[in-house]
Amino acid sequence: MTNKVLRSPEETCAPYIIPIKRALISVSDKTGIVDLAKELEKMGVEILSTGGTAKVLQDAKIKVKEVSDYTGFPEIMDGRVKTLHPKIHGGLLAVRDDKKHMDSAKKNDIEMIDMVVINLYPFQKTIQKEGVTEEEAIEQIDIGGPAMLRSAAKNFKYVTVVTAIKDYPSVIDALKTHGGIPLEMRRSLAVKVFEKTSYYDQKITEYLKTKGGEVELLNLHYEKAQQLRYGENPHQKAVFFRDPRNHYPNVTNAKQLQGKELSFNNIVDANAAIELVKDFARPTATVIKHTNPCGVASADTITTALIKAHQVDPMSAFGCVIGLNRKCTKEIAEYIRDNKLFVEIIIAPEFEKSALSILKQKQNLRLLETGELRINPVERDIKTVSGGMLVQTADQYIVTEKDLKVVTKLKPTEEQIRAMLFARNVVKHVKSNSVVFATIEDGVEVTTGIGAGQMSRVDAVHIATHKGGKRIKGSILASDAFFPFSDGVEEAHKAGVSAIIQPGGSVRDAEVFKRADELGIVMVVTGIRSFKH
Questions:
Q1: What is 17-210's CATH number, 2.40.50.140, 3.40.50.1380, 3.30.470.30, 3.30.457.10?
Q2: What sign for the dihedral angle of Cα 117, 6, 91, 45?
Q3: Predicted pLDDT at 79
Q4: What homologous superfamily does CATH list for 402-525?
Q5: What is the pLDDT confidence band of residue 214, given thresholds at 50, 70 and 90?
Q6: DSSP 4
Q7: Most buried residue, 181, 209, 339, 533, by most Cβ within 10 Å?
C-alpha cells in the first residue's frame, strides 16, 4: 500500500483515510454479505452482528461477536430493541480527535466502530404483498437500522457506512488499495444513507396515510429516466422522470422491445392503456387515443378481446395505442398486419416470440413489455397546477355487485349486471364528463359507444350514441357521475338503452329515477363517483 494512513482531516498531504478495526453488520437482505465479511475478517476486522445476520456469518465459519454480548444487554421485545444502546451509538458518533469525546468513551467502556453495514427491514416489499395486515406492515418498520445508519452517516468524517449491496465490491477494493476508506468515499456513502432513510420514511408515511391521517409534507424522489425530444407540442421542452423505488409493472418500468424512441404523448397514452386493463380479471384489451379509449372488450381470449375492442370504433383507432392485460399473441400480430392497422404502441405483460417476428416488420411500432400486471396499493395520482400540485390516492375502487342498489321497478338481469360492472370499470378511465355504453356479444363484454370529456352529460350521451349508432340498441349505459337532470336519461332512451348504472347523489335523483321508470329503463346506483379531470 502506497498511501499513508492519516488520523486527522487536517493532514492534507494525502487522502484522509480511516482504517477499519471494528465493523457492525446487520442486514435484512443477506445477498453478498458473507463475501464482504470474509474479506473484512482477512484484514483483521472485528465483526459485531445481530440475530439472523450473526447466524448466517457464523454458519459461514466467520468469527462474530453478538451485539448483545458486546453491549452486555440482551435483545428484548422480540428484537424490537437490540442496537439502541450507548455502546453502539457512542462508538459511532464519537469525534475521534476530540479529547472530551474520547475520555467519555474510555470512562464508559465504549469502543470505536469504524464501519456499519446495514440494509433495512423490507417495509415496501411487505406492503406490496396481497392481504398484508397493518400489524404485519408495522413490524417491518425498522428503528435500530435507520438510527445506526444516521449516526454513522453524521460521523462520516470517521466512520464508513454501507447500505447498498452494489457498494460492497468498491468498499473492499478501497480497503485493499488504501488500507482504509478515503474521505470522499465516506462522504459519498453517507449521502446515500440520507437519501435511503428519507425515502424509507416517505414510504412508511404514505402507507400510514392510507389508514388515516392528514398530509402535511410531500417529498418527491424521482430520477431522470429520459430526455424527451419535446413535450406535448414541439415548442415545449420535456424530461421523463421515474420513481427509482417503484418496481410495479407500469409504463415507467416497461421494457421497450422495439420501435422509435417514446415521446411525451406516447408515454401518457401508454400509461392510460395499461392502467385501464389492469382493472380487469378477464383477458381485456383497450384501444386508446389521446388517453381515452376508443373501444374496450373482455373475452375468454386476449385475441378476441383485441379484435372486438378495435371494431368498436376503427376510424378513431387510426394511430392508436393498444393495451393488453395478457400476453400479445401471434393472432393479434396477424390481425394488425392483415388489416394494415396503424398502431403507435402495444403495451402488454409479454409478447409471444411468433408475435414479435411479425410485429418487427413494422420497425417504427413501439412494443412495451411490463411483466405480469398487478396493482400498486399505495399508488398516488399527482396533478400539477401553476405554482403547486394536487396529490390523491389513485382511483382503484372496483365496483362490484354488492355496491348496486336498484332504484327502478324493473330489475336488472344477470347479463345486464355483468355489462354494467364492465362499463362502470371502463368509465372511470374516461375523461369527465363521460358515459360508456356496453353490451354482451357472444359472451364478450364490449363497449358499444363512448362519450368522453364533455361539458355536459347530455353532450356525452349524444356523442356516444352518435359513435355507437345501431350498436347502442339494447346496451347498458354507465355514467361517471350522477345525472343532474332527466334529459340525459331521455337521450339514452332515444338510442335504445335498456339499463343505466350511475353513482346517484343528485338533488333531483327522485325525478331521474321516476323518468327511468316511465321510459322502461332499469337503473341502479352505486354511491361511487369516478370523475377524471
A1: 3.40.50.1380
A2: positive
A3: 67
A4: AICAR transformylase, duplication domain (3.40.140.20)
A5: low
A6: P
A7: 181
Gap between the Cα atoms of 320 and 340, Å rounded: 13
What cell does 124 get? 415496501
| Cβ–Cβ under 8 Å, residues 371 and 350 | yes
pLDDT surpasses 50 at 10 = no
C-alpha cell belonging to residue 331: 393472432
**17-210 and 402-525 share one fold:** no
Average pLDDT over residues 53-80: 84
Residue in 151, 362, 118 with CA at minimum distance from that of residue 259: 362
pLDDT at residue number 140: 77
Bridge partners, residue 436, by sequence: 450, 478
pLDDT class for 223, splitting at 50, 70, 90?
confident
Interval 443-462: pLDDT, tens: 999 999 999 999 988 899 98
The predicted pLDDT at position 5 comes to: 46
Write the CA distances from 150 to 147, 166, 169, 374, 400, integer angstroms. 5, 19, 22, 34, 47
What's the burial of 471, exposed, middle or buried (CB within 10 Å: 0-12/13-18/19+)? buried
> What pLDDT does residue 216 have?
66
- Say if residue 226 is exposed, middle or buried (CB neighbours under 10 Å; 0-12, 13-18, 19+): middle
The one-letter code for the residue type at 104 is S
- How far is residue 416's CA from residue 421's CA, in Å, rounded to a whole number? 9
458: phi > 0 → left, psi -120 to 50 → alpha, else beta; which? alpha
Give me the chain's average pLDDT, please.
89
Q: Are strands 476-479 and 366-369 parallel, antiparallel or unpaired?
A: unpaired
Q: CA angle, corner 142, sides to 141 and 144, nearest 5?
A: 150
Residue 305: its H or E element: helix 302-312
Percent of the chain with pLDDT over 90: 63
Q: Is residue 66 classed exposed, middle or buried when 0-12, 13-18 and 19+ CB atoms within 10 A define those classes?
A: middle
- Which stretches of 349-406 are assigned E, i.e. beta strand? 366-369, 380-385, 388-393, 405-406
List helix spans (H) across 322-362.
Answer: 330-338, 353-359
Residue closest to 198 by CA, chosen among 242, 150, 139, 155: 150
Is-above-0.85 flag for pTM?
Answer: no
Residue with cell 321508470: 517
CATH class held by domain 251-369:
alpha beta
Mean pLDDT confidence for 301-306: 98
pLDDT band at 217 (very low <50, low <70, confident <90, very high): low
Give the span between the Cα atoms of 48 and 161, in whole angstroms. 14
Q: Which of 107-121, 187-201, 350-364 has the highest mean pLDDT?
A: 350-364
Q: What is the grid cell recorded at 484?
A: 343532474
At residue 376, the 3 state secondary structure works out as coil
Using DSSP bridges, classify how beta strands 17-18 and 181-182 pair: parallel, antiparallel or unpaired: antiparallel
- Domain boundary assignment for the chain: 17-210, 251-369, 402-525
- Please check the confidence at residue 282 and state whether its pLDDT lies above 60: yes
